[in-house]
Design brief:
A hairpin with a 2-residue loop joins strand 10 and strand 11. By secondary structure, this protein is of the alpha/beta class. It contains 13 helices and 13 strands. Bound molecules: pyridoxal-5'-phosphate (PLP). Pyridoxal-5'-phosphate binds next to helix 4 and helix 5. The site of pyridoxal-5'-phosphate has 15 residues, from helix 4 and helix 5.
């Protein structure tokens, strides 16, 4: 049985007609950029998230860039984050004019280690970005405490954690600003690109609103140089159709993760945490294996999709080699990236598909042991 890594067509099958119906009035309106659909989407998103301000932009990268800049991060500042994330987290820091400082991850997990963050705080540290990687919320209580103690801004990269709940609060609403991506494969993904900045701070929201639209305070009044980070109306129309499905999709992902746990418990792989309480929404299902490369080859041979998120940590990427401290500086991160493997995971996945993935993994383990 072939098992695709993700299956966008299957995921969109239920909403296909509704989406086409939502596009028609946008096409007829002749207004295609940051108009009524974007405004309505922002309102609906803010209501779901219970946050005062939700500002739509055209990508998660733009959301992170604007959140940093609106929080006052700029040239000469250091921003502490992880190296095992999508490169956009670091790029946003660079775009804001600041320098990324990479901290290691917690033992046995994938999120930022607050103890290692503490060791890397200097007089130039201005902010931290907590990345809720794979859908698992970082240790926000400790990070928020450190932000208070050291007068730092705390920004959440919740691009992989739509709808994740941490101690009763939605990921993205806990720090000074939260950033989400609507890249197609995300837990809430559009049919193109999109992003969102969440904040409870009126001044931060105002600055994001201005910066995303060329630094305008009013029509043709530009108070600072800004960007074109506006969301397209068709994307907002699609996202308004998809948003009501987020909760059920996350529940389905959590169910798939539980199936994997049941099927792979004795596989010898190190499985991700499956708290089942909504604090992990399983954007990706990432296992660890010392024999990862051979396992991935075997899965490919069996027709099962897999991927590595991410094979090279950012401090070892050519673009950021100068920013980090080189090989050996982040031992847990560097160890993890040699072992991680993302198995197929999406809300439309069936129990049969999970069993097929598990059977291929067990067959590989048995062959290796023989
Ligand atoms: C952790 C993380 N941060 C930032 C981004 C950037 O989002 P986008 O691709 O929408 O710019 C992504 C998504 O790709 C991501 O996974």
């Amino acid at each position: 049985m072939n098992v695709p890594f993700v299956d966008m067509a299957r995921l969109h099958a239920d909403t296909h007609d509704e989406m086409l119906a939502a596009f028609a009035p946008v096409l007829d309106s002749g207004a295609f950029v940051q108009g009524a659909e974007v405004e309505a989407f922002e309102r609906e998103f803010a209501a779901v998230y219970g946050t005062p301000y939700a500002l739509a932009v055209n990508s998660g990268t733009a959301a992170l860039h604007l959140a940093l800049q609106a929080c006052g991060v700029g040239a000469g500042d250091e921003v502490i984050t992880v190296a095992n994330t999508f490169i956009a987290t670091a790029e946003a820091i660079t775009l804001a004019g600041a320098t990324p400082v990479f901290a290691d991850i917690v033992e046995g997990g994938f999120t930022i280690d607050p103890a290692d963050v503490a060791r890397r705080i200097t007089p130039r540290t201005r902010a931290m970005i907590a990345v809720h990687l794979y859908g698992e919320v970082a240790d926000m209580d400790r990070l928020a405490g450190m932000a208070r103690d050291h007068d730092l801004k705390l920004i959440e990269d919740a691009c992989q954690a739509h709808g994740a709940v941490y101690r009763g609060r939605l990921a993205g609403t806990i720090g000074d600003a939260g950033c989400l991506s609507f890249y197609p494969t995300k837990n809430l993904g559009t049919v193109g690109e999109g992003g969102m900045v969440l904040t409870a701070n009126a001044a931060t929201a105002g600055r994001v609103a201005s910066l995303r639209n060329h630094g305008q305070a009013g029509r043709h009044v530009h108070i600072e140089p800004g960007y074109n980070y506006r969301m397209a109306e068709l994307q907002a129309a699609a996202l308004r159709v998809l948003l009501p499905h987020l909760e059920a999709w996350n529940a389905a992902r959590i169910r798939v993760a539980a199936w994997y746990r049941d099927e792979l418990g004795d596989s010898g792989l190190l499985l991700p945490a499956t708290p089942g309480d909504g604090s992990h929404v399983h954007h990706l299902y990432v296992v660890r294996s010392a024999g990862r490369d051979a396992l991935q080859c075997e899965l490919a041979r069996a027709g099962i999709g897999s991927a590595i998120h991410y094979p090279t940590p950012i401090h070892l990427q050519p673009a950021y080699a100068a920013a980090g401290e080189g090989p050996g500086s982040l031992p847990r991160t560097e160890h993890a990236v040699r072992e991680i493997l993302s198995l197929p995971m999406h809300p439309a996945m069936t129990h049969e598909e999970v069993c097929a993935v598990a059977a291929a993994i067990r067959a590989h383990a048995a062959a290796a042991a023989a």
